[in-house]
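Thread: Newbie trying to understand structure tokens

Hi all, I'm a second-year student working on a class project, and my supervisor (Dr. K.) asked me to get a predicted structure for one chain before our next meeting. I've only ever worked with sequences, so writing a 3D structure as a token string is new to me. If someone could post the tokens and maybe explain what I'm looking at, I'd be very grateful. Here's the chain:
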Amino acid sequence: MKIKWDEAGKRLYETGVDHGVLFPMGEDNAYGKGVPWYGLSAVNESPSGGEPNAVWADNIKYLNLMSAEDFGATIEAYTYPDEFEACNGCAEIAPGVTISQQDRKMFGFCYRTLIGNDTVGTKYGYKLHLVYGAQASPSEKNNQTVNDSPEAATMSWEISTTPVDVPNFKPTAHLVIDSTKTDKAKLAKLEEMLYGTDGDQATEPMLPMPEKVIELTKAAG
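---
Reply by user tm_fold:
Sure, no problem. This is what the structure looks like when written as tokens:
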């Protein structure tokens, strides 16, 4: 069949960021209960590594060895949950009194980006992003006087990550689930884990490890 370009409904794009959830790591090295991240304005992904290192032999380019890839990102927001204080290198020494320059706690992070197309816009679908082993670096914060054109201060944090094990694959720190390609019932169960549930059998928000995500999305219907 001949290739066709620009068919209706297939002109896809990604936009937006929402449904941010923070999962602070506890003293037992397990991710704790998730809390909502209000005011999330941007998550700029910045992977590094994966660069070719040429090996020369016999006066020719013998092969390319690829360096390991690392996932990093910059989180931008107008505010952050109280639970992020420890991840930001702050500790409370008295009610309402905090000190900085402390050890930075690792955390997990979840956010959502929207998928749109030319016929239904951003109602087409979304991608869930799960980030593991994240640590925030010290970042700049600008405080300016109030004037006739006031702007809310934006905070940002550069994060680095430590990959976690994935069965039958290389370790990773970033997992993406596409709602347009994943079974709806299985996706709903995953979101119940990530966001928690209400009712008589209410559950707390939790960050499942990649092995659990694979098990859930591959499970028989």
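A couple of things are worth pointing out once you decode it. Residues 53 and 65 are 5 Å apart (CA to CA). The first strand starts at residue 13 and ends at 24. Feel free to ask follow-ups in this thread.
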